Model the fold of this input.
Amino acid sequence: NAGVTQTPKFQVLKTGQSMTLQCAQDMNHNSMYWYRQDPGMGLRLIYYSASEGTTDKGEVPNGYNVSRLNKREFSLRLESAAPSQTSVYFCASTVLDWGSDQPQHFGDGTRLSIL
Amino acid sequence: AQSVTQPDIHITVSEGASLELRCNYSYGATPYLFWYVQSPGQGLQLLLKYFSGDTLVQGIKGFEAEFKRSQSSFNLRKPSVHWSDAAEYFCAVGWGGGGSNYKLTFGKGTLLTVNP
Done:
């Protein structure tokens, strides 16, 4: 089925370890996004990529890096994980026309715990 | 800067009762407004959206929302709540330079509990 696929779904890390979260979409969307969701905080934008080859910081970029590998894939990397990065991470992609039925498509999330 | 406020962190209603979830936004231009629902352990599902035109918009699962520019509000309503509506609800405003630069800013969410 068409959509946004995130891997892994769950991960436990130790403080200081590194980790890359993967995201791929098969809808030929130009823009892709990484959010984190914490209790009582809603979703906050970490980084986004308006098109292949470009990335920009969002609201909470510290401690993260991203790579837009190609049009389909947008990865999020934690170089040295910290307990404050324990969260649920969502990837999303968006069409150019926000008048369409589903402007942003979300993946199912990656639940990341850092001990 | 854009922002979204959902004043109610947690709401409890009885099954069959009516529901209204509040959302206020701050944005300098004409907003794109959205309501999403998230069931426990799941991703986000779009309930409805407002772009322009009729200020009362209909969504899935029997939900509707009304855009009131004078009050900077986009409240979500349902006339009769079902137990399956128990979830967390997020209001969001879409903004940006157009096309690929569109982004969403979310409110902090309202958790809905439905009593039998």
Remarks:
- The radius of gyration of chain A is 14 Å.
